[in-house]
Amino acid sequence: MSTTSLDGRSALVTGSTDGIGAAIAAELAAAGAHVVVSGRDTGRGAEVTRAISAAGGRASFVPADLAAGAPAVRALADAARDAVGGVPDILVNNAAMIIAPKPTAEVDEAFITAALTINVTATFLLTGVIAPAMAARGSGAIINIGSINGLIGMGGSALYSATKAAVHSLTKSWADEYGPAGVRVNTIAPGPTLTRRVEQFADHLAPLIARIPSRRPSKPAEIGRAVVFLAGDDAANIHGATLSVDGGFSAV
Ligand SMILES: NC(=O)c1ccc[n+]([C@@H]2O[C@H](COP(=O)([O-])OP(=O)(O)OC[C@H]3O[C@@H](n4cnc5c(N)ncnc54)[C@H](OP(=O)(O)O)[C@@H]3O)[C@@H](O)[C@H]2O)c1
User: Fold this and answer.
1) Does 189 sit in the ligand 1 pocket, CB within 6 Å?
2) Ligand 1: centre distance to CA 197 (Å)
3) Distance in Å, CA 231 to ligand 1 centroid
4) Cβ of residue 47 lying under 6 Å from some atom of ligand 1
5) Ligand 1: distance of its center to the CA of 16 in Å?
6) How far apart are CA 152 and CA 161, in angstroms?
7) In whole angstroms, what is the distance from residue 135 CA to residue 115 CA?
8) pLDDT tens sequence across 150-204
9) Of 185, 168, 190, nearest to 244 (Cα)?
10) What is the architecture, at CATH level 2, of domain 10-244?
11) 144-172 per-residue burial string, b: 16 or more CB within 10 A, e: under 16
12) Whose CA is nearest to atom 19 of ligand 1?
């Protein structure tokens, strides 16, 4: 658990019914924030909120399908605002379509559109609703979950990497757009992280892990604690940064 206090603050974490998002929600709640957990799966959403409550934290679940366009995104922002009693202090754009490696020539147009819709368009639309309200209040922290794939090239992962590079770029533009109004926008770029889903591909990951300076994948809670840091006052003058949590993967 982090030593940063987020007592009295609120957070919306997209894609927090599972994986890294669920760990981010748990760490934000452990630091004192009232967290809105979101995703499509109501059963897993209830599990995540129950676990946070059982650990003494505060969480509310708001179901949302980020592939459903602007009205669904606006409905999520409105419901999150109702759940925590105002514009959230912290927005974590985490939900994404994870894409298994595939040759570029085998990726069809519909799939490209689907990936861009969740990984880029939904992040763009949700931030477009919440960031101006944070700016009007004069404070807020937005953390975009990027990836090492947004920093380095990886054959077979062109589409996923392009969506994540777009997220990294959005962070910098939004830091410039909203920073003067007191809204800090930063990226966390995880390396391979052992979620329930990724654990199923442990064999596939082995060669990647072998070249990581730390020689191990990240743990979801380690991404969560980096989010808590960037959301808290210790990061008060950090704007537009990319914090890699990848055991050194992208540095070598
Ligand atoms: N795991 C890694 O090794 C790794 C490495 C680098 C970066 N990342 C990044 O970390 C973030 C989380 O990844 P993860 O590994 O935790 O993924 P994951 O285990 O597949 O979880 C994805 C989350 O996103 C939600 N989601 C997916 N599609 C959605 C949609 N259409 N509408 C609303 N929610 C949706 C899922 O919830 P529902 O199913 O309930 O909708 C789930 O909670 C992503 O941005 C990913 O790019 C992951």
Assistant:
1) no
2) 9
3) 20
4) no
5) 8
6) 8
7) 29
8) 999 999 999 999 999 999 999 999 999 999 999 999 999 999 999 998 888 888 8
9) 190
10) 3-Layer(aba) Sandwich (3.40)
11) bbbbbbbbeeeeebbbbbbbbbbbbebbb
12) 19
